Structure formats: C-alpha cells, structure tokens
Amino acid sequence: MEVPTDGRNLQKNLGCAAHALSAFKPLPDQSMNDPVLLRELEKLDPAIAFRAVQNHTHHTWAKTFHSHPTLYIQPHSLAEIQKLVHLARRCRKRLVVVGSGHCPNTITCTSSWMVNLDEYSEVLRVDRDKKILTVQAGVRLGALNREAKKCGWTIPNLGSIDQQSIAGAIATGTHGSSLYHGILSQWVHSLRLVLANGEVVKCSAKQNKDLFQAALVSLGALGIVVEVEYQMVPATNIEWVQTLQSMDTILDTWDTDLWIKAEFTRVWWLPYVHRAVVWRAQKSRKEHVAPKSNWYGGAIGFHTYHILLWFSNYVPRILPAVEWFVFGMQYGFSTGTSITAVQEQRTGLLMNCLYSQFVNEWALPLSKGPETIRRLSAWLNGRESESGIPFSAKGIWVHSPIEVRVSDTSKHAGQARPFLDISYEDGPTLYLNATLYRAYGIDPPCKDRYYEAFEWLMRDVGAKPHWAKNFLTPHRSDFEEMYGDKLQSWRGVRSEVDPEGLFVGEWLRENILEAPCKEPLDCEEVEVSRTAWGKERGGGVEWFGKQASPSAEGLTRRSVSSGSSEESFDQVVGAEIEDSRLFDSMSEDQGSSVHDEEFYAKPREDAESDMDGTNVFEKM
C-alpha cells in the first residue's frame, strides 16, 4: 500500500485550505478568488491539500512552445489528485498533466490548470519473484532505474533519454531501437487512473481491457495515470561498438544482419557525406570500460557544432561542409573507425540530445527503409526528379544526423496492443527522425519546406508520425485513415471515461478527436492565439487558450456510471479513501509493500550524475 502520511506531515504540507488560499498572490483574473473554486473548496476535506501556485510559465524542453497555466498543481497523494480532479470538473477547468516537457508540440500547452506529478513518485511494491515494480506515475525513468538497481534489475529498454516520467513515456508511445523489443508500454502489466469523475480504476490485459489498450498510449486524454505496474529484467552491462560506415554498406546489409547483429542497434545517417554512424550494443559480463577519450568529443565539440549551426542560419550552404568537418573530427574522415565501451545498460543506452531542437519522427515498415532513404537522399542532394518528391530542394540544406531506429511489436502478439501504437503489428518498424537544431533559440530557415517535403515522402510510403514530435501536415482525417477502427475504439473509451472533456485541448481536438457536432465539450479548452517570441526571449511560440464553457454555472450531471455523481465522490474523497473501493483489486497484487522494504524513488536526487554520455559526440 501507499506509505501513509502522519498528522504532522499533513499539517506541514499545507493541510488547511484557508492557509493555502492566504499564501497565493492572485493574478489579474483573480483565479484563486474565483467564487466557484472557493465554494467547491469549502465542500471538501480541508486536511487534503490543494497545492496550487500561480505565475507559472510552462515550456517544452526545447522551448518551442510556452504557455501560462492559471494554476500549477503538484499533488503528493492520491487523495490530493482526486481532489484537484473534482475541483477542476466542478469549476469547468481543463486539466493537463506534464512531466519533463520533452514532448515538443502544443499537447501540454494550457491557460487552464496544469498538474505535475514529480512529488508523486514513490516505488510502492516490489515483487522479487516476478521482477515487477509498482510505482507512482510521476517517477522519472532514470530514478526508477536507480531504484531498480537496488534489486539487481533494470528497465528492459530505453529511448535516447531517461528524463521522462514513466507515465509520460508510456502515454506517447516512447520506444528504443531494437528488433528484439517493442515500445516501452510493452512491459506494462497494469495501470491505475483517476478518471474525470474522480474514481480510480485499475486496468490490465485481463481487467478493463479496452481501457488498458487505450491508456497504453493515452496522450493524456483519458485521466491521470497514478500507478504503473512494470516488468523489469536483470541488471547487466552492455558492450557497445560505434562504427563509421558508408551508406552503401548500410543499405546492402539492411535485409541481412544490420539490425539483428546485436540486441540494440541505432544508426545516425549523414546525408551529405553519404555515411552513417552505426551503434550496436549487446549484453555483457565484462567490467566497466570507459570509451576512449577524444579531445574534441567534450565541450570543444559541443560548442563548435553549436556555433556552426548558428552561423548556418545566415549562410545555410555551409551545412554540407559543417557535416564533413564536425563528424569527421569525431569519427574520422574515412570509414571503418570505431569507438567501444562497456557500461551499465541503464546508462549505456542513453545519448546526449545536445541543443534545443525540432524532432519530426515517423514510423514505417522496415522493409521500405532502403527505398525511403534513397529517395530522401536524392532530394537532399538536389536530385529532385529521382526522389519523386514534388517540392523544390533548391536552397535547402539541413542538419545532421538523421536518426534511424527500429522496433518490433509483431513478436509480442499475446500482449494487449495499444489502440494508438504507431508501430506495425505485422512486421518490424523503422523510425526516421528528421532533427533540426534551434541553435541559440533560432529556428533554422529550412524547417518549413524540409518538413513539408519529408512528411510528403513519409505519407507516400505509408508512414505514421510519432505522437510526441513536431509533425506539421497530418490532421484528423489523416489519422482516421491511418488508424481506422482502432482510433474509433480509442475515441469510444475516451468519451466514456471523460464525457465532459476535462482532459481535452486544442491539439487533441484538431488531430485525434472527432469534429464536434455542435459545441465543444463542457470542460474543453480551445486555442485563442499564438505569439512568436523574439530572439531576446529565446525564441519559440507563446500559446494562449480559453475554456470553451464560459462559466461553471449550470453544471451538467453526465456521469460515467451510477456511482460517479458528485455526491458519491464527496463521500469517497475524505480520509477513508485508502480503504475504499479505489483499491478493490489490491489483493491481486503480489510482493512486499514499499513501507516494509524502505524502498523509495527520488527523481530529483543526482538526476544527471549517472549519465555516461559526458563526451558529447561519443554517442550522438
């Protein structure tokens, strides 16, 4: 069970609603003096804190978008999460849950209420026999791996970073690069969510299966994920080898051993020099061996590339020469040069993302990789007719590298598959990521036309965009065609658990949800405007929204079930919450409690200290 909070901590943590309100400095809209909010707060147990602050500015990690939520809320307990959900619904305020902000589009932008679960990040239960950890959803992947190490375990696979929360990584379909693994949600045994009516529901492949398949890639639109039951594997070292190869070699070995020679394989494609860096890693019992040092691979290389990228905004035609120089200095100017190391898997799989960036990644069948790469290469190198892409490449020079990764969810047919899984269920999946850096906060001049051409090619080969990236051209009708009945199933679940749109914003409406028949949902937020920030403010776009419903008066009583009315929730949200039906399936869970194990995740402690990618370019 969750570790209980004693009375002293409760008082210390702003247990009294009156004290909470007195601590705020109201914004011009008098958010905390909202009579509806004050009235609703009076109805609820003041011992359950409502930890809201104002004057918070949210931005994506890359600072591509900025927004100003009316309230920024960091709950510490399940009861606090239920309380804020109840208040938001009664006050007609959209809720957005954010973690590290690594999703670079506007899906987390809001002028309404924003929730962050960094303070809800403990490990709850440890099943040592099955190697399963049950955690609160705010725990970051890096912190989870550090705690798992205490049991001799690790997360089976990672993407390029471990800064996301476990809930955020699952919600957007995060993946690594291995034909022996699917996406990260493959390893989820069960989830618990707080729905829009305040109820907590557990779902798994055997319990509430439709909700489970929708929640495995939820896009934050179903409720607040509060608990994740996740499969671990034995901790191990990996030995990795990174080699510079020609693109001809890459394409010639594509269908033979390129992707199966090792458990983990990534490729960074350098389109102007027609080469690629191939990174392979295999589990190993060898002792830790640091990569060979390179005087250029640390701060010198980092700042040199950054400055050259900045200069290329004004003289774009230097980018092919920049690619030759920067990657030649790091990997050598001839093919065959290699770097090797032995590191812990939990850190060895990570890479340094370098600078603020746009990321535009699409998934396509692995078998279409060579054709797609040849066509994109032809376009980038000025051979437009050979590429078949109906956009001019004249004057377009792009950044390097283009990231090439893989996964295979077709080998896990017995597991519940997310409705919105971007990978292909009938074979391996290839991911192409066209990264563009925002050197010193400046958007590169090639962005719009490059991404327009890139996305046209991706759609031409039947690809689908990654949810947590900067795609530009696809919209609702395109996703309906891409996902068909699975999107309809996801929409059906979403409408059932959140009929009033408590978790619905503009990005979801424009891309995923059906067009509104008449009016927006009662709690839905709509976009009002965007304002570009100048260079002096670091660039990016400022986003503004408003609630679709003009007032919280006239509250409707649509509910998910007969037990979901406001009255029933008011009774449940009190001090007896831990003993209520919200944990009715606790007896199904195996393993010791975190209280007995004294086993806690601390996401902010030494968050970066385990990062092996100190030398920036050793692993891109």
TrEMBL record:
GO MF term set? D-arabinono-1,4-lactone oxidase activity; FAD binding
* EC number(s) from the headed UniProt entry: 1.1.3.37
Report residue spans for region: Disordered.
544-571, 583-620
What is the main EC category here?
Answer: oxidoreductase
Q: Which residues form the FAD-binding PCMH-type domain?
A: 65-235
Task: Give the UniProt keywords, A-Z.
Answer: FAD, Flavoprotein, Mitochondrion, Oxidoreductase
Instruction: Spell out the Basic and acidic residues composition-biased ranges.
Output: 594-606
Where the protein is mainly located, per its record?
mitochondrion
Q: Which reaction does it catalyse?
A: D-arabinono-1,4-lactone + O2 = dehydro-D-arabinono-1,4-lactone + H2O2 + H(+)
- UniProt entry tagged with the keyword Hydrolase: no
The metabolic or biological pathway listed in the UniProt record of this protein is: Cofactor biosynthesis; D-erythroascorbate biosynthesis; dehydro-D-arabinono-1,4-lactone from D-arabinose: step 2/2
Which cofactors does this protein require? Answer: FAD
Compartments, record wording: Mitochondrion membrane
Q: Which GO terms describe its cellular component?
A: mitochondrial membrane
Question: What InterPro entries does this protein's entry cite?
Answer: ALO_C, FAD-bd_PCMH, FAD-bd_PCMH-like_sf, FAD-bd_PCMH_sub1, FAD-bd_PCMH_sub2, FAD_lactone_oxidase-like, Oxid_FAD_bind_N, Oxy_OxRdtase_FAD_BS
Its family remark reads:
Belongs to the oxygen-dependent FAD-linked oxidoreductase family.
Designated name of the protein? D-arabinono-1,4-lactone oxidase
**Source organism per UniProt:** Venturia inaequalis
